[in-house]
């Protein structure tokens, strides 16, 4: 299949290089783009390979969750007070094990763990992860995901982990991305040199480049927000929703952040989870949900804010810190900001 990248004009060298890289296996792609990583590329390869490996196992379990008794809750709650689903816990185990075995990670921050977990003290990286995003959709066979942020530790490898290693701002991320377990399974990530998407080929058991250099349209006609909570939204958010309706935009809300974000990145749109009466700080977590998607969004030409600050500039004070989240097409987020969202 030949894709034209510039409306039928003679493809530029860059676009034909990109066109021909479609179908490149993830490992090969990382090797071919070693210059894209500030640190020793072997370490990034290993880290992404560990995340890809765990996601393949989780993907297999997600696909047959109903058959292998992986539906429903385990009876305990995480620190956020969410009922932990069996797949939340299992995905957390799969990623923790794969990253521990890989040896590159010294500390793991997870939605499903109250405190960070020490892995390999010689490791140079800290990872924040939402092992299973969209938990309310697990039992109803709707797309779910995994979200990850990768940081370089600040303290020397082999020394005790310091708070400064853990509580890093989003702008300190060296790589970030997500896995989407949808009609197909995709791994999408950035190392600060654009965003690339890989589709999983289950018979070969490998991810292949399918969406090179993803760009988020600057404008869109889709808005994603849980309007069931509208009565407790700030006035400016209600005003922005009215603006979207007046423009006859399309309302789309899956209820899985990764899936709503991914659609809006491809088609153009805005995802909003504001502060509400129930969650006055917002619902979503800065370290393992918003920072990663904000990095991906900005690298794809989009924008991410809490209404006042750029998400990536927000100081991190605690592991499970929440934030209001407005992310998506640049002009749509700016429009919402111009109405005074906060
Ligand atoms: O049900 P609500 O309040 O609309 O919240 C849905 C949001 O909460 C989340 O499910 C939170 O993530 P987890 O499932 O990882 O806890 C997001 O994926 C989703 O966008
Ligand atoms: Mg989540
Ligand atoms: Mg989760």
UniProtKB/TrEMBL annotation:
Domain Fructose-1-6-bisphosphatase class 1 C-terminal: start-end pairs: 216-338
Q: Where are the transmembrane segments?
A: none
* Record-listed Mg(2+) 2 binding positions: 130, 133, 289
Molecular function GO terms recorded: fructose 1,6-bisphosphate 1-phosphatase activity; magnesium ion binding
* Domain Fructose-1-6-bisphosphatase class I N-terminal positions: 26-212
Q: What is written in the cofactor note of this entry?
A: Binds 2 magnesium ions per subunit.
| Official protein name in the record | Fructose-1,6-bisphosphatase class 1
Could you tell me which species this protein originates from?
Chryseolinea soli
Q: What is the name of the gene encoding this protein?
A: fbp
